[in-house]
Amino acid sequence: MAVEILGLAGSPRKGATEYVVEEALRAAQELPGVSTKFMTLRGKKIQPCTGCDYCKTHKTRCCIKDDMEELFEEFVKADAYLIASPVYVMAPTPHLAAFFSRLRPIHHVYPGMLRNKPGGAIAVGGTRHGGQEVTVNILINYMLTRGLIVVGGEIGGYAGGKVWSQDKKEEGAAADSIGLETVRGLARRVAEVALLLKAAQRGG
Ligand SMILES: Cc1cc2nc3c(=O)[nH]c(=O)nc-3n(C[C@H](O)[C@H](O)[C@H](O)COP(=O)(O)O)c2cc1C
């Protein structure tokens, strides 16, 4: 039994969030049968959805030609997801918001494409209580709009992983041992649910 977990870092720079996603994927790999893929929005050109309804009316992919075409292909191949964002003004980054808006064809063209795939949410803030909780909740809503099964971090992690970077990129995130435990616990739980769902699908 094998599953691939994709970790998506929604920061426009190499910093705390990419580090946290790598840590999460390392934890997920502790479960036998789990392989991982890292995806970052850093350096990617992704326009937000303009609401032109092209995908809805033509029943096809988005008409905007940018890096989202390739990212879409890669994203939908995975069996499970860890979605991470820096906290920007107490919310996910606009880059990640644009990414999820551009997954609209999943709703109008390929309904069910992500059905029975689990996902977990991770937020990385520069302030200890700078909006990680609300950011995780928004990421959960993003996943729900695309049909994913939302997985939480159980006791201690609850809604998802929450890290305090002290605005010090990787170094700050690495110092938050409590926050990183919420991330690792979430990642193992997403991996476990992905394996269970894959086994159930194989068993018919
Ligand atoms: C535009 C902007 C808005 C931010 N807003 C918040 C905020 O509301 N709360 C918070 O805790 N940190 C905030 N931060 C700090 C980042 O969340 C923090 O530095 C985070 O670690 C960045 O992740 P990265 O290093 O992966 O880019 C903000 C940073 C930027 C650039």
Account of the protein in words:
With 204 residues, this protein is of the alpha/beta class. The chain has one domain: Rossmann fold (3-Layer(aba) Sandwich). Helices cover 45% and strands 17% of the residues. The chain has nine helices and six strands; from the N terminus they run βαβααβααβαβαβαα. Strands 1, 2, 3, 4, 5 and 6 form a six-stranded parallel β-sheet that branches. Helix 1 crosses helix 9. The longest helix has 26 residues. The radius of gyration is 16 Å and the shape is globular. The two termini are 14 Å apart. The mean pLDDT is 97. Flavin mononucleotide (FMN) binds next to helix 1 and strand 4. The site of flavin mononucleotide has 19 residues, from helix 1 and strand 4.
Radius of gyration: 16 Å
> Main sheet, how many strands, which sense, barrel?
6 strands, parallel
Main structural class: alpha/beta
Distance between the termini: 14 Å
Bound molecules: flavin mononucleotide
CATH superfamily: Flavodoxin domain
Would you count the extended β strands for me? 6
Going by CATH, the architecture would be 3-Layer(aba) Sandwich
Can you give the helix content as a percent range?
40-55%
Number of domains: 1
Shape: globular
Reported by name, the CATH topology is: Rossmann fold
**Mean pLDDT value:** 97
**How many H/I helices?**
9
Regions with little confidence, pLDDT below 50 for 5+ residues: none
| CATH uppermost class | Alpha Beta
Domain NADPH-dependent FMN reductase-like: 4-153
InterPro entries: Flavoprotein-like_sf (IPR029039), FMN_Rdtase-like_dom (IPR005025), ISF_SsuE-like (IPR051796)
GO molecular function: oxidoreductase activity
Protein name: Multimeric flavodoxin WrbA
